[in-house]
Amino acid sequence: MRHEKIVEQFLIYYKYEGKGVSV
């Protein structure tokens, strides 16, 4: 497993949260 994938997912999640979109 690559750490980059986790970071990318976290970045996407953070971006979504920043926009005020909860999943």
Walkthrough of the structure:
- The chain is built from 1 helix and no strands.
- The chain has one helix at 3-19.
- The longest helix is centred in the middle third of the chain and has 17 residues, at 3-19.
- The mean pLDDT is 76.
Properties at a glance:
single chain; 23 residues; mainly alpha; 1 helix
- Which class do the helix and strand fractions yield? mainly alpha
* Largest β sheet strand count, sense and barrel closure: none
User: Which stretches are low in confidence, meaning pLDDT under 50 for 5 or more residues running?
Assistant: none
For the record, give the distance between the C-alpha atoms at the N and C termini, rounded to a whole number: 25 Å
Write the H/E string, N to C. Answer: H
Helix count, DSSP H or I runs of 4 or more residues: 1
Shape type: rod-shaped
> Radius of gyration, Cα only, in angstroms?
10 Å
What fraction strand?
Answer: under 5%
Kindly report the average pLDDT value. 76
**Strand segment tally:** 0
Helix content: over 70%
SSE layout:
Blueprint lengths: L2 H17 L4
Concise structural overview:
This protein has 23 residues and is an all-alpha fold. The protein has one helix at 3-19.
